[in-house]
Amino acid sequence: MRFLILPLIAIATPAMATPALTSATPAEGSDTANITRITLNFSEAVDPAASGVDVMMTGMPGMDHHDPMKMAGVKVAVSPDGRSLVATLARPLSEGTYAVRWHVADKSAQKASGALTFNTH
What we know:
The chain is an all-beta fold.
């Protein structure tokens, strides 16, 4: 009886990592003022065509219950190194609570999304 022994071949493939938010300015849960720019930093370069940011006012002084209001005039760009989304606002955010909803994809189409909140005074 003969046995045929086949060598096992390990094929190395690159790890498919999903872009991850590494830091943000303003930071999650922060209380700040005079916000005219929001910067989201990621673990790897993102594809500008498949990435974006929405800034929503979710709370306003004196109005406990109102629907989120999308801020108009937000311009989003990718930093020169490709690892940050920068949302530039037409004017400073007024006093209130805000949610920043983001979505990104890297060059290999790995997608991620999330949100962060902060307060302004």
